[in-house]
Request: fold
Amino acid sequence: MRIGLIGGGNIGKFLLQRINIEGLLPNGRIVGLYTRNKQTAEQLAAEFDTENYQDVQRLIEDPTIDVVIEAATIEVVKEYAAAILRNGKDFVLSSVGALADEDFYKELEGICQASGTRIHLPAGAIGGLDVLKAAKAIGELDSVSIITRKPPQALPGAPADREQVMFEGSANEAIELFPKNINVSIILSLAGLGPDQTGVKIISDPTVRKNSHSIEASGSFGKLSLQVENDPMPNNPKTSYLAALSVLSVLKNKDAVVKVG
Reply:
């Protein structure tokens, strides 16, 4: 598998290290990198022995690349996703919040059907998605909600000295206000009832050092109650380490003969 990577931040560096240096993806390698910071791109390309694409269009159109990973921003997804898929490449999204836009989601879905490509969405920092998909399949999922608790430094504008509810509403509203912090709510909503019907509460808590997510769901299957507590990436408290691991997991299982879930 020949991989193109868009983004040179924490998740991008993690993938370059684990795939190109440690060889954790058998028969797979990141062969091309694009990031808007030219100096960073040159440094990463040299350190991890990959090609620096100074023009993202060249990476997108390169016929030797099989799959492209986005490890950047929602804006990058909206700008380049359609072209990546139209050029016959599967697409792994890190910034799944871009798919909260229903029209955009449907546009990409149509392109995939026409071009025979696929979009892969990592589970990120949460679990329980298979339960929601199973209940949704027969139309018997009634409610889904998530409470996210993070340290203040991970949330813009959060007070450093006290606990505060920073947001309470729908996943659709949450991703507009916290595009770098609450991707988990969108992947949860896509597995379940959709961004407008998924409840979200975001709490800033100076007593915690880890990101935590409490998921509640109910339907004909019964009730789901799940607590996930995970460490942030060492160099970026806004990004869950588990989110980076889940991107690697998608790549490792992308072409698996036997898939679980």
In short: The chain is about 35% helix and 30% strand. Residues 88 and 117 are 6 Å apart (CA to CA). The chain has two domains: 2-121, 129-236.
